[in-house]
Amino acid sequence: SAVSTQGAAHRSVSSGSTRRILLATDLSPASEGAALQALDLAHDLGAELLIVSVIDPGSLRLPGGRFGGRVDQVRSRRESAAQELVSRGRAAGVRVSFLIWEGDPGESIVDAARSEQVDLVVVGSHGRGSVGRFLIGSVSDHVVRHAHCPVLVVRARASTEPMA
After folding, report:
1. Are 48 and 93 in contact (CB under 8 A)?
2. Is 140 left (phi over 0), alpha (psi -120 to 50) or beta?
3. What is the dihedral of CA 145, 7, 100, 17, to 10 degrees?
4. Where are the alpha helices (DSSP H) in the chain?
């Protein structure tokens, strides 16, 4: 549950050692839980929050080799979504900034964490399970295995709405 995840994060991360938190996000609704956790942690620890969103140009290709979207269009949508998240954080008293990178998401997040000298990475997980990870790979798994600092993986919440 989100509460136990947050409690674990607060116990394992102290305000003295955590000055910069990196939120790795695709800025989709499934990533909202990770964004909330990162904002809460940054606020509670008095840390700066750096939002990093990675555009994977390879993911824009359609079957047959054509492109389903352009990088500049995706970048524009991500910048708008990131600005909204920056505004929410700043309204809560958190120092927030964002970067948009292009490349392999897992590798780019690890590189950003190192180059930006962050103390903690918060990343969401879409919760696809072992079969999904086998078929498409898992960005969060890659970050956990390769990051130089602690990583908090926040699972996407399952819908709690009743089925019609």
Report:
1. no
2. alpha
3. -80
4. 2-12, 32-45, 71-91, 105-115, 129-136, 139-146
The span from the CA of 140 to the CA of 75, in Å, is 21
What distances in angstroms separate CA 163 from CA 29, 108, 160, one per listed residue? 19, 38, 9
Per-residue confidence band for 127, with pLDDT thresholds at 50, 70 and 90: low
Angle between helices 2-12 and 32-45 (to 10 degrees): 40
Q: What is the dihedral of CA 49, 106, 126, 89, to 10 degrees?
A: 10
> How open is the CA angle 94-11-116, to the nearest 5 degrees?
45
Tens of pLDDT, residues 66-102: 666 788 888 999 999 999 999 999 999 999 999 999 9
Q: What is the pLDDT of residue 106?
A: 95
